[in-house]
Amino acid sequence: VLVVEDDAFLREAIVWALEDDGLEVCSAVDGRDAIYRASISRPSLIVLDMTLPGLDGVGVGAALRSQFGGGLPILVVTADGHPRQKAERVGAYAFLHKPFDIGVLVQHVRAGLSGQNPQAVS
Amino acid sequence: LKHQPEDADLLRLLVERVVDYAIFVLSPVGTVLTWNQGAERLKGYSREEIIGQSFERFYTEDARAVGRPARLLRKAASEGRVEDEGWRVRKDGTRFWADVVITALRDDRGSLVGFAKVTRDLTERRQAEEDRAGRLAAERAAAQFERLQVASAALAAASRPESAAEVLVDVAVQALGAASGLVALPTLDRSALQVVAMHGAPFGAELGQCMPLDQAHPLSSVWHLRRAVFVHSRARSDVEHSEIVAASGLETSGAWAAVPLLSDRNVLGVIGLSFDHERVFDTDERSFLLALADVGAQAMLRARLYAAEEVARQKAETAERAARDEAQLVEHLRRVSLALSAELDLDKVLQTVADAATSAIGATVGYFAYHVVDERGEQSTLYVPSDASQQTFDTGAMQHTDALFDPTLRDVDRCDDILQDPRYRPRTTDGLSLRSCLMVPVISRSGAILGRLFFGHYQPGAFTERSERLADGIAAQAAVAIDNARIYQQVQQAVQTRDEFLAAAAHDLKTPLAATKGIAQLLRKRIEGKQMADSTRIVSGLERIDQSVDRMTGFIDELLDLGRLQLGQPLDLERRPVDVAVLLREVVADHQPNAPRHTFHVSPIDGKIVGYWDPVRLRRVFDNLVSNAVKYSPDGGEVLLRAERWATAEGCTAVIQVTDHGVGIPPADLPFVFERFRRGGNVAFIQGTGIGLAVAYSILQHHGGSITVESFEGKGSTFTVRLPLD
Asked: Which range has the worst mean pLDDT, B149-158, B531-540, B569-578?
């Protein structure tokens, strides 16, 4: 799982929670970093913050889709208004509004990895 | 008398038997001496009754009273004979019209022995003559009456004094068979008579000519006399009106007549008639002319009243038209006002003004030349043509016509014919055929010129003083509408800025909240699952929570500072000794984990620059500067932080510079970098609240320090902070 989040503490907390759940996790601090990391580690799922310095979440999503195709599940995490629209634009299977329950995030990631859509975005 | 004896008998017989003539002899004193059968038949007296009686009884009482019988005898005696015609009286008192010849009879020595009197009864002839004369008089009276009637009818239809005058001249000339005629009316100041109608060229006058009333002339004389003057001929007039004729210098030898038009002793005008020959004006003619003058005077009065009424009516019409125009003007303004009152969008206001004004003014083309001053203070003109003008009027034409008028002019300006205007420079590139132009400045409440309304028309002189007033009214309404639209736009912008700020602020708070919440949940899970073996993770988690709360507190403090600054309140600095070099290293350490592509260089590495400052707020300043340096150099690179101690005449200063190699700040944005909510024109893709630098600026000001920036777009920026050391 690739965690893309510019806030160091939140990034660490998500990584920590997913690792505790037994997943293999890598992280990126901004859009550019995310595309670089994704190309190296070829993640099965991406947790994507929408508000990133430089290339923002929508841009990162578009870049990842062109690289890995539509099948790559993306879980959007955002503090903005209009999370649903943004999630739709990157083709995310679910979104979480900050501040979110870390346990719910883990559940969403698990569901995304097993192909279920716990909170489908149509 | 000498007769042959046989003749004497015949003669006596003739005298005695003639019955158609009364032939008798009177004594020298008028006693009847002889009588014949004719006399008896004519006068009714027998020979016996009348012989020896005075012949005076044959005369009427009136004739006898004036001594007419004796006078006739005297005349016959002195002249030999007298002939007379007149009424005579019969014995029964009845009258007959007699033709009488009295011849004086003298003897051989010439002494008067008596009178021979021959009388003939001409009553029948006389009657016939009288009948004929009566008939003629009646006919003439009827004709004149008819003329008067026709004249009256024609005069009644005359609505102006001039047309009444023409009727009078025609009727008078025709009725009296004059060679020429005129009617003259007094001028307004009553100093002269002016010829207003003429037939031929009487009295040497011309139509429209004024004859002063203080100069001698037949017409002015009649004006002053207030009665008619009839002159049969120059020669005969010597008696009655010699001075008038002499003074007038009239060359005609013929007769003339002048009759005043009198109304209540007021002379309203004069009719003058001139004849080629001498002539007598009989009673009928005189009375006809006087009657005509009466009718004419009435007509003049009526025409005058009518003319006065006409003037009043025209005045009323003019007033009504003016009122209607005014109402229309108000209606136009009302419509413009209505159209504008509902509009707050500036572009639509400009379009509405251009459309409504052009149609209200009735211009062929119209546009609004709106002064645009952008955020950076640069000026330009936005041309908004009215809907109707868009086809025919391009921007070039608008610029060209706009250049006619002084842009600083504060009053309406009108050009009735562009071709006569020295300001106009014809262009060869277009077929601009405007002739009339009208320009009105649109001036804001604040007195600033917002722009100009221009109107053009293809005909010269198309715009009037009324168009100016209308344009002025529309301009005033346009100014209010534009002011309102601008305020609305500013409010909209402020609301949008606030919304954007709130969204950014929410993001900045929610992310550390999410981290705190996440870490707290993880720690709880660990503690619940008794996974206490790895205590370092628990400790570092708690540290993270602590730090996150600090960050949020810092951010909230920043918002509170901003709020205080917005309200104009000073910041309460909590000064403590601070080593700025240490502070910079701490800030860099905070940012390094989030900036994998950036390398930070702090110099000097181990120097100590200690000042008496507010550490929390200064940390926020540098946190902002470093965060910006990272944020606005998305490609990574070096971020240089240099702290130095400068000694100047005023004292020691700490100078701290933060340099990045990022996108830089466009020159146009540079002056506004430290304003609230202001973000560079080239960084829309980077999230931010736009308050960091503004708050930093205020914090440094409160410390007695300053912050400046040097930047090149595409190369990077250097922020320089100066803080006093004491």
From this structure: B531-540
Residue B619 in tokens: 């940390």
Interface test with A, best of B509, B522, B547 (most A CBs within 10 A): B522
Q: Where are the alpha helices (DSSP H) in B372-411?
A: 395-402
pLDDT at B376: 67
The nearest CA of chain A is from the CA of B584 a distance in Å of 19
Q: Which burial class, exposed, middle or buried, applies to B251 when counting CB atoms under 10 A from its CB (0-12, 13-18, 19+)?
A: exposed
Q: Note the pLDDT tens digit of each residue in B117-127.
A: 999 988 888 88
Q: In this complex, is the C-beta atom of A17 within 8 Å of any C-beta atom belonging to chain B?
A: yes
Each residue of A42-76: pLDDT tens digit? 899 999 988 777 677 888 888 888 888 778 899 99
Contacts of B633 in chain A (CB under 8 A): none
ipTM of the complex: 0.84
In this model, does residue B546 exceed pLDDT 80? yes
Q: A60 to chain B, minimum CA–CA distance in Å?
A: 13
Q: Is B20 helix (H, G, I), strand (E, B) or coil?
A: coil
Q: Whole-model pTM above 0.80?
A: no
Most A CBs within 10 Å, among B500, B502, B510, to test the A interface: B510
Which candidate, B543, B346, B525, places its Cα nearest to that of B451? B346
Within an 8 Å CB–CB cutoff, is residue B322 touching chain A?
no
Residues 81-120 of A with CB under 8 A from B: 81, 98-103, 105
Smallest CA–CA distance from B518 into chain A, residue? A102
Locus of tokens 């009177």: B26
pLDDT at B684 over 60: no
In angstroms, the CA B726 to CA B578 distance is: 12
Say if the Cβ atoms of B518 and A17 lie within 8 Å. yes
**B367-377 pLDDT per residue, tens:** 998 988 776 67
DSSP string of chain A?
Answer: -EEE-SSHHHHHHHHHHHHHTT---EEESSHHHHHHHHHHH--S-EEEES--SSS-HHHHHHHHHHHH-TTS-EEEEE-SS-HHHHHHHHT-SEEEESS--HHHHHHHHHHHHTT--TT---
The reported pLDDT for the residue numbered A2 is 93
